[in-house]
Amino acid sequence: MKKYAKTHEWVEIEGGIATVGISQFAADELKQLTYVELPEVGKTFAAGEAFGSVESTKSANEIFAPVAGTVSAVNVALEAEPEMINEDAEDRGWIMKLEKVDDSALASLMTKEEYLDFVK
Fold first, then answer.
1. Going by CATH, does the domain composed of 3-103 fall within 2.40.50.200?
2. Cα torsion for 16, 113, 93, 69, to the nearest 10°?
3. Which of 24, 26, 35, 92 could make an S-S bridge to 8, C-beta 3.0–4.6 Å?
4. Is the overall model pTM greater than 0.85, yes or no?
């Protein structure tokens, strides 16, 4: 099950690996993405720590890790096609995968229903 942060990131943990991206709501608000700054594989982030940024024709925004962990993979396709996030932010547009996940921050995150109420 995906969980959402008030800063508009989502996380889904399966088999000890956390997949992280920005919400479709955030992607739609940003409009056309032109650049995604990806984190380095091997780097460790705390929950709430900025790990990269997204830039659009409208603005530039930092992206924050919803849970703590070590980057095990990044979606390199986003370097050539940042608009993939606009098209499918919560599947093909994932940004990073984390291993050695500390999921203690999950309790403070929202379900999809809670998030949709939050962004109304």
1. no
2. -30
3. 26
4. yes
